[in-house]
Design brief:
Length: about 170
């Protein structure tokens, strides 16, 4: 009987400690001003450290800017919000020499908007009349995914299928 009580106390102590442990932090329910199901974010972000954002996006000004979700000091999701007068060629952005919108091994997907998904990111564009132009482009880069890792393409696509339309909604795009 004594051993049983000790076991119960030990299990309760472990449970209380693990629930109170600061080593596991929930992913945010909104990223860069866009609500998103944390389960979709968790497909791309495995870190259990504290999350915070570096956000330079001013939606009302519609000026091209970055927004980064960090886990402590490590970038885990990098976004680029961009407004232009003309539609941008997504393959040009994805395969260009710069690193701003580079996506490895891009392929077109049917999302209802022009979109491409790669092994480490995605880019989507939609008509969206704002102060910054007639088109909105969103680039997602997942820097912690290895460029040769082919296993996350579907996860990135699933995330963008939810995140891009939700972002358009926050911008008031029709």
């Amino acid at each position: 009987m004594n051993a049983r009580r000790i076991l119960i106390v030990l299990l309760l102590s472990i449970l209380a400690f693990s629930c109170d442990s600061p080593s596991h932090h929930e992913v945010p329910k909104a990223i860069c001003g866009t609500p998103i199901d944390p389960a979709l974010t968790r497909l791309l972000v495995t870190s259990t450290k504290e999350f915070h954002e570096y956000n330079r996006v001013e939606r009302s000004d519609a000026i091209t800017a970055p927004c980064i979700l960090l886990s402590e000091n490590d970038p885990v999701l990098e976004f680029r919000f961009s407004w232009d007068d003309t539609a941008t060629d997504l393959m040009y952005l994805a395969t260009g020499a710069g690193s701003i919108s580079r996506v490895t091994a891009p392929r077109g997907i049917k999302l209802g908007y022009k979109s491409i998904v790669g092994t480490d990111g995605a880019i989507s564009i939609a008509k969206c009349k704002t102060n910054g132009g007639d088109y909105f482009t969103l680039t997602l880069q997942v820097p912690q995914i290895s460029l040769m890792d082919q296993t996350h393409r579907k996860d990135i696509e699933k995330f963008m299928r939810a995140y891009f339309p939700a972002t358009l909604k926050t911008l008031g795009c029709k």
